Amino acid sequence: MGWQDRDWAKWTDDERRRFVGGGVSIVPGAVLGVVISLVVTVMLAQPFARHRAAPAPVWGDGVVAYQWGHDTTCTELRRLGNSWTCEVWTFLLPGQGARPAAALLSGQACATVVADQSLRRWVCAASS
Predict the structure, then answer these.
(1) Within this chain, do residues 23 and 63 fall inside the same structural domain, yes or no?
(2) Is the pLDDT of residue 93 over 90?
(3) I want to staple 61 with a disulfide (CB 3.0 to 4.6 A). Which of 40, 46, 74, 79 is the partner?
(4) C-alpha distances out from residue 58 to 107, 115, 125, Å
(5) 10 pLDDT band (50/70/90 cuts)?
(6) pLDDT at position 5, please?
(7) Helix, strand or coil for residue 83?
(8) Count of helix runs (H) and strand runs (E) in the chain
């Protein structure tokens, strides 16, 4: 039996709609309206994306060094004799700056100092 002889092939459009469901009808111009609204939305969002606030600076030694494929700054120092060496390098986000942290409070002798980001100053992590 060919497909033309089957019952469903003999249905009228109304019968087919009743049993199978109607097709999706698209209002003329609807696709164009969706495309235009998406383009307008993207265009309006662009100025806001460019004026995003820069990330807060990282407080430490204030020097930006390019290491391991990223801008970094030192945020922890350890005393070695009469000099200091960096123990912890912090990666900077794009657009993020490095600022020098304020000096230790007077009279503190430390073996290791850490740049406290909320106080924006060096604090003792280990006494000497």
Answers:
(1) no
(2) yes
(3) 74
(4) 25, 9, 18
(5) confident
(6) 67
(7) strand
(8) 2, 7
Asked if 84 contacts 101 with a C-beta cutoff of 8 angstroms, the reply is: no
Other CB atoms within a 10 A radius of the CB of residue 91 amount to 13
Q: Kindly state the average pLDDT of the residues 41-57.
A: 76
Whole-number Cα distances in Å, 70 to 73, 90, 91, 92: 10, 10, 6, 7
Q: What angle do CA 95, 100, 106 make, to 5 degrees?
A: 160
Characterize the bridge pairing of strands 58-60 and 83-91.
Answer: unpaired
Structural domain boundaries enclosing 42: 3-50
| pTM listed for this prediction | 0.57
Return the amino acid letter for 57.
Answer: P
Do 41 and 95 have their domain in common? no
